[in-house]
UniProtKB/TrEMBL annotation:
Domain Polymerase/histidinol phosphatase N-terminal: 3-67
Pfam families the record matches: PHP
MF annotations from Gene Ontology: 5'-3' DNA exonuclease activity; 5'-3' RNA exonuclease activity
Protein name from the UniProt record: Phosphatase
InterPro entries documented for this protein: PHP_dom, PHP_domain, Pol/His_phosphatase_N, Pol/histidinol_Pase-like
């Protein structure tokens, strides 16, 4: 039984449509495939509709999280996609422009700038509000001479005094929300150091205490030593160990089923989940 629990479609940054993805997964000889697009479930219906006989689909998502300034990805499986709290959080991660711009206005006000939300809304007009509109307000108020002068550490540049970072979910909140929606969480590629700073083992231990179900160990971004270390950590913390391709179609070099998950671990994931059930393929619509 070949099980690949981490794949992307055009619903996020993959290049296969959900229908192409499930067909390609069947052609690659997979028995089980999880669809885990970034912060969205919108590919699920198309994937289910096109599911070939012999392939079982695990519905899921890969949630964008951040803890102590370190970004990370949390795989979530078999949660109820309509559960309101988790749905609202996914939507906020995908589009946080309004709360973010409001946050920047609030910080500017704290810095003594007489900017208002109404002013920024008027500048944005029919466009979707963002940082350039806040910058234009600073020009209107004579705080800076040009829009580009607003993109400095004094004002709105990344890390600047009035900057508000893009919203990413606290992973402990993600674990709680996914559990609340009947799902299972697996920390994706926790040792992928080439992507930037990684989360310390002590924090992974806290996540395990908070209800994290597993960690993804067999992944293209982990070398042999990292896999051995993570396998030891999982054993110490009582976490499930998964392996998966993180397939993105032609966007990345990995192929479907390049790494797989043990059937016993898959069985445990399906036993723990109550929000949704794996969907067996019946031959496609
Ligand atoms: Zn990822
Ligand atoms: Zn991914």
């Amino acid at each position: 039984m070949r099980i690949d629990l981490h794949c992307h479609s055009t619903a996020s940054d993959g290049t296969d449509t959900p229908a192409e993805l499930v067909r390609n997964a069947a052609a690659a000889g997979l028995d089980v495939m999880a669809l885990t697009d970034h912060d969205t479930t919108r590919g699920h219906a198309e994937a289910i509709g096109a599911l070939p006989a012999g392939l079982t689909l695990v519905t899921g998502a890969e949630l964008s999280c951040r803890v102590d300034g370190v970004s990370l990805h949390m795989l979530a499986y078999l949660f109820d996609p309509e559960e309101p709290a988790l749905l609202a959080e996914r939507e906020l991660v995908r589009d946080d422009r309004v709360p973010r711009a409001r946050g920047m206005v609030a910080r500017l006000q704290e810095l003594g700038v007489p900017v208002t939300w109404e002013q920024v809304e008027r500048i944005a007009g029919d466009g979707s509000v963002g940082r350039p509109h806040v910058a234009t307000a600073l020009v209107e108020l004579g705080v800076v001479p040009t829009v580009s002068d607003a993109f400095t550490q004094d004002w709105l540049a990344d890390g600047g005094r009035a900057h508000v970072a893009k919203h990413e979910t606290d992973p402990f909140e993600a674990i709680r929300l996914v559990k609340g929606a009947g799902g299972v969480t697996v920390f994706a590629h926790p040792g992928a150091s080439k992507r930037g700073r990684t989360v310390p083992e002590a924090v992974i231990a806290e996540m395990a205490t908070a209800g994290l179900d597993g960690i993804e160990v067999d992944h293209m971004d982990h070398d042999e030593a990292t896999r051995a270390r993570l396998r030891g950590l999982a054993a110490d913390l009582g976490l499930l160990v998964t392996g998966s391709s993180d397939y993105h179609g032609s966007r990345k070099t990995c192929v479907l089923g390049e790494y797989t998950t043990d059937p016993e671990v898959y069985g445990e994931i399906t036993r723990r989940a109550t929000g949704a059930f794996p969907v067996p393929g019946t031959g496609g619509a």
